[in-house]
């Protein structure tokens, strides 16, 4: 079931001639569990194309959850009518409770989707304002230098800086709505490369979040790992970085390092991931990601 998060609230204000900062109209209060991720994590280099990709994947995934719960509600409603005709009161009231629970969850999903769309709309507005101010700044810089043009350049510079700060702020707010990735270790695949007694270390990083686990190939070719699952908080700017090393006594031998994008993980079904650790694909890593 999709994890829900405290919603990002923003108050609506009438537009005035003097442009006010987005941060003055919004209050970002990330959950305590993510405060360590937010602290000092503001990136003063907005990436509109990446944000657009994440937004589209996120909205698609949320709509999948909405459709699945709507289908469940339709099914329960049909059972509810049949039960009412058959007068099985105990089962009827149990179904009624289930229907109300699903209806509440659907309302939460709809609100979640609306907040994500609202944030992205505000982000696009700031992006267009920044592009306009940047183009005007370039035009003024090519014109003869006068007191008026220098004042205009200074004002445009402040506008670009303010739009950039607002875009970064909205990116941080959007991350609060991305949910969680539950990553499960499914083992290494290596055919002849994996032998009984071999020991490996897998290191998975997503931004500041890290997961280090060790495994061993047993005599029956099965694998034992000291950890099986880790929760990661999605990040707008970072990709998964996976590093595999072989442990031989006190020595470590690098097997390979790969990166993995998370765009395909925003879906209702668990995603089976097979990553080529070596260039020739002689050793692969199998993971399962549930959003």
From TrEMBL:
InterPro entries: FAM65_N (IPR031780), RIPOR3 (IPR026136). It comes from the Eukaryota. Residues 12-291 form the FAM65 N-terminal domain. Belongs to the RIPOR family. This is RIPR3 protein. It comes from Erithacus rubecula. The lineage of its organism: Eukaryota, Metazoa, Chordata, Craniata, Vertebrata.
């Amino acid at each position: 079931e999709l994890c829900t998060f405290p919603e990002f609230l923003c108050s609506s204000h009438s537009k005035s001639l003097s442009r006010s900062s987005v941060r003055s109209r919004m209050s970002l209060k990330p959950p305590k569990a993510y405060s360590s991720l937010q602290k000092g994590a503001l990136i003063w280099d907005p990436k509109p194309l990446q944000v657009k990709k994440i937004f589209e994947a996120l909205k698609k995934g949320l709509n999948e959850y909405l459709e699945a719960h709507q289908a469940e509600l339709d099914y329960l409603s049909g059972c509810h009518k049949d039960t009412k005709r058959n007068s099985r009161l105990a089962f009827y009231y149990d179904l009624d409770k289930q229907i109300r629970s699903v209806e509440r969850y659907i309302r939460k999903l709809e609100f979640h989707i609306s907040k994500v769309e609202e944030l992205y709309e505000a982000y696009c507005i700031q992006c267009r304002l920044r592009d306009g101010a940047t183009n005007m700044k370039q035009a003024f810089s090519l014109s003869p230098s006068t007191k008026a043009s220098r004042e205009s350049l200074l004002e445009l510079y402040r506008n670009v800086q303010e739009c950039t700060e607002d875009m970064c702020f909205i990116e941080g707010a959007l991350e609060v709505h991305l949910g969680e990735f539950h990553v499960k270790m499914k083992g290494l695949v290596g055919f002849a490369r994996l032998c009984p007694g071999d020991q490996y270390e897998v290191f998975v990083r997503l931004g500041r979040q890290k997961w280090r686990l060790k495994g061993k190939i047993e005599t029956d070719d099965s694998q034992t790992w000291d950890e099986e699952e880790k929760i990661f908080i999605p990040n707008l700017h970072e990709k998964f970085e996976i590093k595999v090393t072989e442990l031989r006594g006190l020595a470590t031998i690098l097997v390979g390092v790969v990166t993995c994008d998370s765009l395909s993980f925003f879906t209702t079904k668990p995603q089976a991931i097979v990553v080529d650790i070596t260039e020739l694909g002689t050793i692969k890593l199998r993971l399962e990601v549930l959003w």
